[in-house]
Amino acid sequence: xxxxxxxxxxxxxILISAGVITLIFKWLKQPLVLGYxxxxxxxxxxxNIFPTVVDxxxxxxxxxxxxxxxxxxxxxxxxxxxxVNVALPPL
Length: 91
Hints:
Elements: H1 4-27, H2 32-43, H3 56-77, H4 80-87
Helix pairs in contact: 1-2
């Protein structure tokens, strides 16, 4: 349980950096995916300009949680009807 406060502060840092970078990249009319990559680099342990996530275990935990949410979102959009339409050639 001692990692819980560290995880929460890391989550706050990740979300704040992603939010600020999202606003900047929308203002610059650039793709948001590129902004998220830049936010990940700024919040990661390799660039020490701002306060960063330094515990690699925290980075791994949040990466795994992100993959779970991504797969959940893809599962919500999955449809057998769309799969059949893609798989079968039109007559």
